[in-house]
Design goal:
Number of strands: 5
Number of helices: 3
Largest sheet: 3 strands, antiparallel
Structural class: alpha+beta
Strand content: 25-35%
Strand order of the largest sheet: 1-4-5
Shape: globular
Bound molecules: zinc ion
């Protein structure tokens, strides 16, 4: 898969699974960027490194929102989009990334 094809697959993936969709909601920007500063991923909440290739989205969901997804979550988006292998669960990688977030929250509660 070429980088361009892969990045298009990432951008086509809907990370919100229909959670949003009120009248007036809109996606203002949805693009692949190179991270200029570190910060948490919007899905797994792992730290995004400076220079990492990430998906960036700006949207109006009632409030103005900004999202960034780390490279590993972007890979999981591509996998979720791939239904060429019937035996594999395409959402497995995406769910695994969500589990990382849950682990981190559990650790924060304990700490
Ligand atoms: Zn992530």
């Amino acid at each position: 898969m070429s980088t361009q094809t892969k990045e298009q697959a990432i951008l086509d993936f809907d990370p919100f699974e229909g959670d949003f969709g009120e009248p007036g909601d809109s996606i203002l920007a949805n693009k692949m960027v190179t991270a200029r500063k570190p910060g948490p991923c919007s899905h797994c909440e792992q730290e995004i490194q400076k220079g990492e290739r990430v998906r960036s989205m700006a949207a109006k969901f009632g409030d103005f929102m900004r999202y960034r997804w780390c490279a590993a979550c972007c890979d999981a988006m591509v996998a979720a989009d791939d239904d060429s292998d019937d035996s594999a669960d395409p959402w497995e990688a995406w769910e695994a990334r969500a589990a990382l977030r849950n682990d981190q929250r559990a650790q924060q509660r304990e700490g």
